[in-house]
Amino acid sequence: MKSILKILVLFLSCQFCFGQMLTRKTLHGKIVNDSTAIESGLVFNVNSQTGDLIDSKGLFSILAKANDTLVITSLGFKSKKVILKVSDFTSSFYKIKLHAVANELLNVVVYAKHVQHPEFGNTQKIVDTQYFDDSQSSPNNILMIPSGTGDPNAMDVIRVYNKIFKNLFKNNPEKSDFVSDVSFTNVAMHSVSYSFFTNKLKIKDDQIGLFLLYCENDPKSKTYLDPKQQIEIMDFLINKYDAFKHIASVEK
């Protein structure tokens, strides 16, 4: 009888723990950086295919459970993936640190728009030039982390941002703030499923935030602010992704 009771208690304990693992609860978090305040961005739960906006204080709230994967994106910062642990739910705020891609990236784009540099010519060709190894120089410096994502074969994030925002400033000469207005982004996130971005459009997790920001700055996005316009919003996103894919194409 005692053995049966022990087995029953053990079984109920296991069921309780398993239930805790399966039940998602609200995770309150804050996105931080050592030197720069993070005032906007997106947090996606890959497993539940839901997301939330990062507010002006860097805060977010999202339903999650242990072993869920979160993808965090914010303009000017390297995207990050984290796998949640049980201990992450014990604190009042779960902090996630992002590292800046280029602190003065937007200033560089604005500066490049207004100033001519004929003496430099096409400097991107110089950057893209392939060199041979020798005893004094090497394309892969083993003492330095490669720029961008840290993977020499990965997407060049800085170059993609440069192309995207060069196009945005060209088409929106009177607009200088590409971060604050997030109404369309909010509507799109709550009316279109996460799988639409990853499966239908084939967008990588860490590019969804940049894509929505790109869509946000098209004046036409202001006509799709009703969550009931799901079909129209999806059509708009599909059409915008063709242009986004062309602009963001990067030779590795």
Compute the number of structural domains: 2
Q: Work out the number of β strands.
A: 7
Strand percent estimate:
5-15%
N-to-C series of helices and strands? HEEEEEEEHHHHHHH
Rg (CA only)? 22 Å
Unreliable spans are: 16-21, 103-121, 141-149, 176-182
Quick one: biggest sheet? 4 strands, antiparallel
Please work out how many helical segments DSSP would assign: 8
The spatial strand order of the largest sheet comes to: 3-2-5-6
Principal-axes shape call: globular
Protein described:
- By secondary structure, the protein is an alpha+beta fold.
- It folds into 2 domains: 2-97, Immunoglobulin-like (Sandwich); 105-247, no CATH class.
- It contains 8 helices and 7 strands.
- The protein has helices at 2-22, 105-114, 123-128, 157-171, 183-191, 194-200, 208-216, 230-247, and strands at residues 25-32, 42-45, 50-53, 59-64, 69-73, 80-83, 94-97.
- The strands form 2 sheets. The chain has a 4-stranded antiparallel sheet, covered by helices on one side. Strands 4-1-7 form a 3-stranded mixed sheet, with no helix packed on it.
- The longest helix has 21 residues, at 2-22.
- Mean pLDDT is 71; it is low at 16-21, 103-121, 141-149 and 176-182.
